[in-house]
Design brief:
With 297 residues, the chain is mainly α. It folds into three domains: 7-125, Cytochrome c-like domain (Cytochrome Bc1 Complex, Chain D, domain 2); 144-249, Cytochrome c-like domain (Cytochrome Bc1 Complex, Chain D, domain 2); 256-297. It is built from eleven helices and no strands. It has helices at residues 7-37, 70-78, 80-85, 89-97, 111-125, 144-159, 195-199, 202-210, 217-221, 232-249, 255-296. Helix 2 packs across helix 5 (111-125). It is elongated.
């Protein structure tokens, strides 16, 4: 027997189908949101990274090891800096356990979006192995030659001697690290010499660079539209190797040498400029003088 749907029924079926697809897309978007906004600092069942492991974080509500309420978690996700500044004891414990790294404000975060992220954490916490259960990245090679080559490549990427694949700016423009750069690096961002230990190791640093969460770095190197993300094995791993080597060697910028080089280059540049101006204007001055002398005679 053939079934015939009346127009109203067809409309109802269409609405239900669209709603189901929208719900599925929204759920996928939540996972993507965690990947873009949270996975650079947190795992779900993989242990601490830059920030704490979030497995079963909602189940710890009301316990001595957990937050006061689910509403507290939502509020902290939406406005972490304000909660930290208020002196909240649990927020202070989280900061201390994360080597004094403060949670970054996530652009465009809302209560609804924070609730959706908590739902992702709850769903992933129930799995035997979460897709966010392990920090991305690879271990540094143990072979001295391979490691040295990786460090050299990382240095070239850091100072701009080797261009980044996606066209991002070289790190040296905003950061300093070890003894990289004859004149040092920029001061817009922090010194990255101790970045590996400050963020919790090479794996944590790799995860952070894969999707940087800070307001300055995210638009430049984030995973969202318009970002220029770094390539994992070809760029992130060499950069981490270079920074780990700089930290291990205790290398630091030679301030005296940099200042001397700056002065020498400044004097030399001024001298070249004066010689160039003299050469460019020499004939013109003589021409003016010659016409004045000729007019008097």
């Amino acid at each position: 027997m053939r079934r015939v749907l009346i127009p109203g029924a067809r409309l109802l079926v269409g609405v239900v189908a669209v709603a189901a697809l929208a719900g599925a897309a929204f759920a996928d978007g939540d996972v993507d949101d965690f990947r873009v906004s949270c996975a650079s600092c947190h795992t779900i069942g993989g242990g601490p990274l830059v920030g704490p492991d979030l497995k079963d974080v909602t189940a710890r509500v009301g316990t001595p090891e957990g937050p006061a309420s689910r509403a507290w978690l939502v509020d902290f996700i939406v406005r972490p800096r304000e909660i930290l500044a208020s002196g909240d004891p649990y927020a202070a414990r989280l900061k201390a356990a994360s080597r004094n790294q403060e949670m970054q404000v996530i652009s465009g975060m809302t209560v609804k979006r924070a609730e959706a992220l908590l739902q992702v954490i709850e769903a992933e916490s129930k799995k035997e192995r979460s897709i966010f259960g392990k920090a991305a990245g690879a271990d540094l090679p143990t072979d001295p030659r391979a490691l040295a080559a990786l460090v050299a490549k990382g240095r070239a990427l850091f100072v701009g001697g080797r261009a980044l694949t996606a066209g991002g700016a070289a790190c040296l423009g905003c950061h300093q690290a070890g003894d990289a750069g004859a004149l040092g690096g920029g001061r817009l961002g922090p010194d990255l010499t101790a970045a590996p230990s400050r963020l919790g190791g090479v794996r944590a640093l790799q995860a952070w660079l894969a999707a940087p969460p800070t307001p300055t770095m995210k638009p430049q190197f984030g995973l969202q539209d318009g970002g220029r993300p770094l390539v994992a094995d070809d760029e992130i791993l060499p950069l981490v190797a270079f920074l780990a080597d700089a930290e291990a060697r205790g290398a630091g910028p030679d301030r005296t040498g940099q200042q001397l080089a700056f002065v020498v280059l400044g004097v030399a540049g001024a001298g070249v400029a004066l010689v160039g101006l003299d050469f460019a204007w020499r004939r013109r001055f003589r021409g003016v003088r010659a016409s004045l002398v000729k007019g008097k005679s």
